[in-house]
Amino acid sequence: MPTQNGEAPGKISMSGGWTLAMSAKSTNKDLAFKFISTAMNKENALYYDISATQIPVRTDVASDPSYGKGDPTAKFFASLVPITQYRPALPPYPQISNEIQVAQEAVVSGQATPDAAVQQYATAVKGIVGASAVAAG
Q1: 103 burial class (0-12, 13-18, 19+ CB within 10 angstroms)?
Q2: Rounded distance between C-alpha atoms, residue 13 and residue 114, angstroms
Q3: For the segment 18-40, what is each residue's pLDDT rounded down to a tens digit?
Q4: Which residues contact 5 (CB under 8 A, 6 or more apart)?
Q5: What confidence tens digit (pLDDT) does each residue in 55-106 have?
Q6: CA dist list (Å): 84 to 4, 55, 114, 119
Q7: Which one of 36, 68, 74, 110 has the minimum C-beta count within 10 Å?
Q8: How far from 93 is each of 45, 62, 81, 90, 104, CA to CA, in Å?
Q9: For 79, how many CA atoms within 13 A lie in the half-sphere containing its CB?
Q10: Cα 41 vs. chain centroid, distance in angstroms?
Q11: Is 91 helix (H, G, I), strand (E, B) or coil?
C-alpha cells in the first residue's frame, strides 16, 4: 500500500506474524531454548517457510535459491519485510481486514466495479468503527 501522505519509502506493508516462545515459568528453560533454536535454524526455517508458504523471518532463508521456487509471489512478499509494520492488535482489525477481501472478491468476480467496491468497503468500515473514526479520503 502507498504510505498515507507519500512519505518515504513511499509504500508500507502490514503483516501479522507468529512466534515460538518460552514461558518465564518454564521448568526446563534449557530444553525449551534448545527446541526453539532447532526449530528456527536455517534448515528447519527454510523447510517450514517453503512448505507452509510463509514469508521468512531469516535473511539467509529469504536469499536461499530454493526459497520461492514453487511460489512465484514468494520473493516479492519477502522483499516487503523491511517496510512491514505489524497489524494492530485491535478488536476491529480482523473485521476491517475481512472487508478488504470482500471488496477484492466483488471486483474479481465481476459483482462490483472497483469504485463500487471502494464505496461498499468505506460503508462497512464506518459500520465497524463508527463514522467519526474514519478519515475522509
Answers
A1: buried
A2: 21
A3: 788 999 999 999 999 999 999 99
A4: none
A5: 998 999 999 999 989 888 998 988 888 888 877 778 898 899 899 999 999 9
A6: 14, 11, 25, 27
A7: 110
A8: 28, 28, 20, 6, 17
A9: 7
A10: 22
A11: coil
